[in-house]
Amino acid sequence: MKKILYIAGIIACVVAVGVYLENWRGETNAAFADLPDSGKISFSCACYGEIQPDQSLFWALVDRGVPPRIVENIRIPLSSVLDMRKIYPGDRYKLEYSSDGRAEKFELIRSPWEKYVVFRQDSVLVAEKDSIPLTRVIFVADGVVENTLWESMRKMEIEPEAIMNFTDVLAYDFDFVTDTRNGHRFRIAYEKVEFGDSVVKIGKILLAQYITKEKAHTAIWYEDPSGRTGYFDASGKSMKKSLLKAPLTYRRISSHFTHRRFHPILKIYRPHLGVDYAAPTGTPVVASGDGKVIYAGWKGGFGNFIHIKHPNGIETTYGHLSRFAKGIRRGVRVKRGQVIGYVGKTGLATGPHLDYRVKVNGKFVNPEKYAFPAEPPVPRKYLKEYKKYANSVLDGVKILASARKNSGRMAAVQK
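-> structure tokens emitted (415 positions)
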């Protein structure tokens, strides 16, 4: 009897399994009823990554296994909203596509506020730039130097890049390394772009003013009706001189211009017709003006030496360099502020420094005191308009600075 019941149980299980499989087959057939006759099943794929240095978008995707045909399908609409030559390292991408070669969605994410999207619309791929508006402001600060200019400006929440731009604007007129003193006053107005609480970009310095007991050094950004731009003082004179005040950032002047100096190595008195700027080995040295290199090589006691000829009969030399910058050789043209070499102690030198010399019409001059010619001033026909503009900038900065003192906050005006 037990054997009969056991066999009956097995038969019942087989029947139940058969019924289940039949039902499953029916449901499965219904679910795949719409598939192509070929029976191929496509599935979704995703690709994420970041553009690497010297890598194009094409190879970034292909190297991740994306078929070239899909990349090309994306590229065509994307190129309508983005210059494909301007895809940079660090740009992030995200691609969704099917295994049968159908691109569904692509995103190129440049920043939290800038994104490019390719998506399917009515079976066609289209692209658009998806960006969030940024806030453009004019930031104003007015303060007093305490200890160092850098520390004083940073305390007022001025960005490092803006501080560097401030000193660059006034570099032709004032030496911030040797002449900065406690009690000096500074005023600055500059553009910046913000995204929420983050600073995206530092723009132009609109006003740079540094006030000592003797003089107010003022530079105002101005574009005249003819399109010429530059920095000018309150009277309309150009702030840009033929040469920079100094061709490097240095720690101190170890030797000044003199016709009688005791040489520390030769142990004799002889002229020193230049200025020695003490600075660490490797400190970048820049061309103090536009010109042409007429010598770059070894020159006796000067060691590695560069000689540049500038317009208006001006020449400059740079001695004791540790090495030359890439591409610096005889015959090449250089721009004001371009790195040409690096501080060293080659030749007759007791320590790392730059021997910097200037000639005007064949005669050595003291670069610390010589009044180098400035570029042309604001044209006379625009001078009245410029002075009106300059006064409005100066008055506006004072008003905003005063408002900041009263509120205890930095002054910023949205553009």
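The helical segments are 2-31, 57-62, 68-78, 149-155, 160-169, 380-407.
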